[in-house]
Design goal:
GO molecular function, one term: thiaminase activity
Order of helices and strands: HHHHHHHHHHHHH
Oligomer: single chain
Catalytic activity: N-formyl-4-amino-5-aminomethyl-2-methylpyrimidine + H2O = 4-amino-5-aminomethyl-2-methylpyrimidine + formate; 4-amino-5-aminomethyl-2-methylpyrimidine + H2O = 4-amino-5-hydroxymethyl-2-methylpyrimidine + NH4(+)
Bound molecules: N-[(4-amino-2-methylpyrimidin-5-yl)methyl]formamide
Protein name: aminopyrimidine aminohydrolase
Strand content: under 5%
Keywords: Disulfide bond, Hydrolase, Thiamine biosynthesis
Pathway: Cofactor biosynthesis; thiamine diphosphate biosynthesis
Number of domains: 1
Structural class: mainly alpha
């Protein structure tokens, strides 16, 4: 999966627009009609992005036919990436990771990220566990993919501890930034049993995909990533992690194809919300506020 515009003209011109929005260290969420300003409280988001139709279960409804067509073309999630390409690019080409790639990253920004992401990943574990429970009720194949993701988090937590001690970053009594706290709160909400599997798996895919695309870019041709950051990039930018993200995306696409309209709408809203939280999270690392 690449983030590049997928052969259409529109995303290309919108990408140019993105660049004008990128500050050297922050991405400000002031966007087009599809995206709300970050000065707005979060609660305003769902309505704006939710297709307002009530649940339509009928397999033969025009909407579900349209969704099947989308799925043939690469899945609903792919259409959402295109539709929300400004936000998606803001999350996957953030100045923080772009600076890792070009070698201009401030090591203290990396340390800030490391500590905050340790907090995030600890909170991510119960979320993934909740997805595992939902997946286990759906399909043995899904369960195995999610279980693989959950299992790898144990090694990931160890990696954060090792990395922190190497870089003299204390993981005890650290200040949890607002963006981290807000993101953890979102994870907690998504952990609830009443959150539909299709929504939860879409969220899971989106969270992993942002890191995959961001760090894979740091390893792609033309990079100038300092050797001390290569290991971090490989953790999420490796071909293996890409394959795992693809599997999650396929599961999400399959669930969304079958889901009633209101669930698809909730999943799309969640996708957008995650991109926003990822951007805010990167902003904390770059800005140090
Ligand atoms: C903020 C954030 N988003 C995604 C990931 C990647 N998933 C697990 O490691 C992460 N570590 N942190």
């Amino acid at each position: 999966m690449t983030h590049e515009p997928r052969g259409t003209k529109a995303p290309e011109s919108r990408l140019c627009h993105v660049r004008t929005l990128l500050h050297p260290t922050r991405v400000t969420l002031v966007l087009d009609a599809d995206c709300r300003s970050n000065s707005q409280p979060h609660k305003t988001l769902p309505r704006q992005h939710s297709p307002s139709k009530k649940a339509v279960n009928g397999e033969s409804s025009p909407k579900s036919k349209k969704r099947r067509k989308m799925a043939d073309a690469g899945g609903i999630t792919k259409t959402w990436i295109k539709k929300h390409i400004i936000l998606y690019t803001g999350a996957t080409r953030h100045p923080f990771t772009v600076r890792i790639r070009d070698g201009s990253i401030d090591p203290s920004a990396f340390k800030r990220w490391l500590a905050q992401d340790y907090v995030f990943v600890r909170e991510f574990v119960p979320f993934v566990a909740s997805v595992l429970i939902k997946a286990s009720k759906q399909s043995p194949e899904d369960m195995e993919v999610v279980l693989g993701g959950l299992a790898s988090l144990s090694g990931e937590i160890d990696w954060f501890k090792r990395e922190a001690s190497k870089r003299d970053v204390s993981l005890a009594n650290l200040t949890v930034h607002n963006a981290t706290r807000n993101y953890c709160r979102l994870l907690e909400k998504l952990t609830l049993p009443e959150v539909e599997y299709a929504v939860a798996i879409t969220a899971f895919w989106a969270i992993e995909a942002v890191y995959q695309e961001s760090f894979a870019h740091c390893l792609e041709d033309g990079n100038n990533t300092p050797p001390e950051f290569v290991e971090a990039c490989q953790r999420w930018g490796s071909p293996g992690f890409r394959e795992y993200c693809r599997s999650l995306q396929q599961i999400a696409n399959r669930c969304l194809e079958k889901a009633p309209e209101h669930v698809v709408a909730a999943a799309e809203t969640t996708f957008i919300t995650i991109l926003e939280h990822e951007i805010e999270f990167w902003n904390v690392s770059s800005g140090g506020t």
